[in-house]
């Protein structure tokens, strides 16, 4: 296995440069790009089921074909090499390599990831594997899903299978991607698979995702070489009160507890915050849910923390204790994902919006990274997702010009650079996404990719932003 050390060399930064050794990459997720939904032993995940449920996904879209990465991975890796990528963050489909979520791995499924990682290494691109990007095997959901404690045991077994199959090729491993979305959008608001709306189940799911992470870290350390790195990726909400009022400060505290510290507390500090337990004790018995030894397992040391950022979260206390507006960027539902946070209203940070109606504000990324560096100074960070959807189209000349995305990326990369200059140990940046893809409940209506995908033909067209990103990587600096 090629030794992978995602480390940077401390040095003074120029106005536009990044440290030597900074990792430049792009990211995807299995269900969003692979397709081949029923090939080589793969069985349905919760997203296969959810996308086939009428009314759950725009236009009835599914990930059956997606960007057909399963069949086109060689061409896609060649494209990555042409773009100058140094790393590729992909996720492994659990139901492709362990179809029922139990028992031995399926070699046909594992072989795809062996071929993919071999192709990446041959191209000089570092593979970065994520074990879970929301596609729980449907059989495990039928048995109770993430609110059921046994799912955490099953995840550790799956981590062991993946690590033993790919540990000679992959040196950086992420356990979970955005467990907040898995728990709070999947079991709270129901806008993500499996589409349940049960506040108590949401909190149980969050704890069992934390437990799954800790047990998976243990399994990875048992199976992988000592040089391998383990991590978790969190979509931490950069929470801001709308005003300086005590009420808005209280709203921000509550959202920070259920949006951030429900994961950072146990994973990084070994305890759930007391205010979170107090806010939600009417929904779940934490003393019964959290068993002896759980927190020790959850807080196993990790080597990196992945940080996903798109937009800040601005909140206020709703007038008269009402429900308030919910411009939180997390989809429309009659059920709030913010369990235990009744009476909080959400606002857009400004009126400069992406196609997702997410406010563009790069200062939130700088604040997030420097805040993490202050609270956990010895923990290296990676920006594992950052990007934007815009209404991209192919011009008559066959080009895809996306100046809005270039401006977005420039401002956010400058925020990363400034955070490093201010002392944050940020080791790398992964653009979301390499390819246009299946954007969850939005189907194929939103395009995040640096590469345009014509879904009818599967033709790939690098956008102007992809070529701009190539310049950034080549110079290890922002273009002047």
Which sequence of SSEs, written as H and E, runs from N to C?
EHHHEHHEHHEHHEEHHHHEEEHEHEEEH
Number of strand elements: 13
What is the CATH superfamily classification? Glycosidases
Number of domains: 1
Overall, the morphology is globular
Helix and strand composition category = alpha/beta
Q: Indicate the CATH architecture.
A: Alpha-Beta Barrel
Detail the poorly predicted runs.
Answer: 1-6, 8-12
CATH topology: TIM Barrel
The proportion of residues in beta strands is: 5-15%
**CATH class, anyone?**
Alpha Beta
**Overall pLDDT, averaged?**
96
Summarize the structure.
By secondary structure, this protein is of the alpha/beta class.
Keywords:
alpha/beta, about 40% helix, disordered N terminus, about 475 residues, TIM Barrel, three-stranded mixed beta sheet
Description:
The chain has 480 residues and is an alpha/beta fold. It has one domain (24-475): TIM Barrel, CATH 3.20.20.80. The chain has 16 helices and 13 strands. The strands form 3 sheets. It has an 8-stranded parallel barrel with strand order 1-2-3-4-5-7-10-11, surrounded by 5 helices. Strands 6-8-9 form a 3-stranded mixed beta sheet, covered by helices on one side. α7 (150-166) packs parallel to α9 (199-223), α14 (363-375) runs parallel beside α15 and α15 packs parallel to α16. The longest helix is centred in the middle third of the chain and has 25 residues, at 199-223.
């Amino acid at each position: 296995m090629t030794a992978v050390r995602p480390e940077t060399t401390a040095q003074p930064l120029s106005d536009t440069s990044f440290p030597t050794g900074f990792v430049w990459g792009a990211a995807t997720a299995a269900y969003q790009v692979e397709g081949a939904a029923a090939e080589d032993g793969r069985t349905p995940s919760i997203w296969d089921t959810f996308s086939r449920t009428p009314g759950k996904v725009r236009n009835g879209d599914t990930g059956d074909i997606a960007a057909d990465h399963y069949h086109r991975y060689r061409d896609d890796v060649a494209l990555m090499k042409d773009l100058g990528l140094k790393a590729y963050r992909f996720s492994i489909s659990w139901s492709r390599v362990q179809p029922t979520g139990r028992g031995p791995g399926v070699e046909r499924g594992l072989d795809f990831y062996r071929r993919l990682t071999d192709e990446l290494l041959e191209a000089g691109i570092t593979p970065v594997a994520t074990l879970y990007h929301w596609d729980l095997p449907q059989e495990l959901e039928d048995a109770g899903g993430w609110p059921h404690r046994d799912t955490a045991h099953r995840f550790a077994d799956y981590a062991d299978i993946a690590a033993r199959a790919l540990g000679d090729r992959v040196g950086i491993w992420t356990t979970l991607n955005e467990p907040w979305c898995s728990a709070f959008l999947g079991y709270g608001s129901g806008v993500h698979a499996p589409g349940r709306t049960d506040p108590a189940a949401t909190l149980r799911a969050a704890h069992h995702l934390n437990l799954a992470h800790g047990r998976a870290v243990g399994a990875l350390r048992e199976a992988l070489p000592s040089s391998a790195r383990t991590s978790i990726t969190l979509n931490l909400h950069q929470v801001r009160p709308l005003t300086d009022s005590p009420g808005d400060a209280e709203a921000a505290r509550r959202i920070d507890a259920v949006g951030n510290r429900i994961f950072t507390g146990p994973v990084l500090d070994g305890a759930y915050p007391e205010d979170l337990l107090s806010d939600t004790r009417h929904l779940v018995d934490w003393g019964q849910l959290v068993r002896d030894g759980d927190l020790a397992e959850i807080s196993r040391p990790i080597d990196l923390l992945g940080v996903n950022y798109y937009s800040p979260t601005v909140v206020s206390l709703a007038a008269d204790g009402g429900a308030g507006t919910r411009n939180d960027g997390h989809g429309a539902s009659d059920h709030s994902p913010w369990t235990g946070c009744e009476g909080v209203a959400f606002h857009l940070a400004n009126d400069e919006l992406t196609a997702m109606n997410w406010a563009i504000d790069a200062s939130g990324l700088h604040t997030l990274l420097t805040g993490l560096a202050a609270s956990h100074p010895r923990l290296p960070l990676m920006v594992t997702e950052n990007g934007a959807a815009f209404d991209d189209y192919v011009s008559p000349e066959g080009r895809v010009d996306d100046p809005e995305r270039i401006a977005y990326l420039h401002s956010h990369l400058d925020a990363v650079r400034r955070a490093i200059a201010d002392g944050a140990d940020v080791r790398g940046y992964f653009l979301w996404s390499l390819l246009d893809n299946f954007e969850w409940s939005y189907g194929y209506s939103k395009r995040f990719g640096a590469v345009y995908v014509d879904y009818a033909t599967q033709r790939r067209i690098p956008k102007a932003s992809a070529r701009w990103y190539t310049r950034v990587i080549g110079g290890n600096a922002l273009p002047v």
